[in-house]
Amino acid sequence: ISKIGVLTSGGDAPGMNAAIRGVTRYAIEKGLAVEGIIRGYEGLLRHETITLDRRTVGGIIHRGGTILRTARCLEFMEKDVQKEAADYLRSLEIDALVVIGGDGSMRGAQALSHCGIPTMVIPGTIDNDMMGTQYTIGFDTTVNTVLESINKIRDTASSHERVAVIEVMGRNAGFIALYAGMASGAEAVLVPEHEVNLPRLCEHLAESHRIGKLSSIVVVAEGAAKGTDVVDYIKEHTYLEPNLTVLGYVQRGGAPSALDATMAGLYAQKAIDSLLAGTYNCVIGLIGRRIAATPYSEAPHFHFPISDNMYQLVHMLGR
Ligand code: ATP
């Protein structure tokens, strides 16, 4: 191969820029030309590209968001649109496409590979919920952002003897809620993977209050329950005073943590090395202590859900 394309797709995640930089500079180091596609799959339909060199990706390793911008492109679900995109990539003489994004972006990459374009996915999503990897770029930064917010909210919660309910991102997976809950010493976490039992939550909170706890933290993943419903339930069924913080987009932004910027570079290297070795249509990921390239078809065998043990432990330690 002599030329690759790179795009970012789906929700932005801290460390995407570090991945773009890593892909570009490592590819150039190996003698490849690099074309950046603007706005994810949408850019393939609108024909928006930019040639990347060492300098265009300078000064971005520490920046949140993505310089290539990103989009959710619903049209791309259609077969003829995918074919059109593949033809466009061929017209640019792009031999392989590196996609930085989440689960949905991986399905898009898979669709392009069915149209004859070799693709490679670098996991970039704050949710940490992708098959084929135990770690997605952006997750660590987000957990740290949430942790910082919880620590601030806790100050107020304990001064006013309140229950702080904090809603975080995670529609299908509870990684952010679980890790932020664990690290902040939350009393409870609600995640989509476990049944939400509000009566038991209330008992737990009332008991904590009775034994002298000044405040309680409950971290709710958006996919488990609505923060407002949790607050209303607590208000109705206990004498406690709950308040709600929905963290929203602060969770997506900011400079990547050391871990995210580092993983971005390592994943980028693996992606390019694999392509150069003739391996493609894979998702790059951390499996155990190894960075692997797993074919899309085998990725479902490498599914790493949240740990049951950790879920139990948060509640045990939060009493
Ligand atoms: P995040 O985890 O941050 O939400 P994501 O990559 O999962 O990221 P999605 O919005 O699910 O985000 O997907 C990004 C884009 O990938 C979609 O807008 C669409 O263009 C493409 N895509 C998703 N699913 C498919 C599919 N089944 N076939 C083709 N393309 C898809």
UniProtKB/TrEMBL annotation:
Top class in the EC scheme: transferase
Matches recorded under InterPro entries: ATP_PFK, ATP_PFK_prok-type, PFKA_ATP_prok, Phosphofructokinase_dom, PKF_sf
Binding site for substrate: 125-127, 162, 169-171, 222, 249-252
SUPFAM superfamilies in UniProt: Phosphofructokinase
Residues bound to Mg(2+): 103
Single GO BP term: fructose 1,6-bisphosphate metabolic process
UniProt entry tagged with the keyword Hydrolase: no
Cofactor entry: Mg(2+)
Catalytic machinery residues: 127
Residue sites binding ATP per the record: 11, 72-73, 102-105
Keyword check for rRNA-binding: no
UniProt EC number: 2.7.1.11
Residue positions binding ADP: 21-25, 154, 185-187, 213-215
Pathway it works in: Carbohydrate degradation; glycolysis; D-glyceraldehyde 3-phosphate and glycerone phosphate from D-glucose: step 3/4
Subunit structure: Homotetramer.
Function: Catalyzes the phosphorylation of D-fructose 6-phosphate to fructose 1,6-bisphosphate by ATP, the first committing step of glycolysis.
NCBIfam families hit by this protein: PRK03202.1 (NF002872)
Family: Belongs to the phosphofructokinase type A (PFKA) family. ATP-dependent PFK group I subfamily. Prokaryotic clade 'B1' sub-subfamily.
Protein known as: ATP-dependent 6-phosphofructokinase
Organism: Megasphaera stantonii
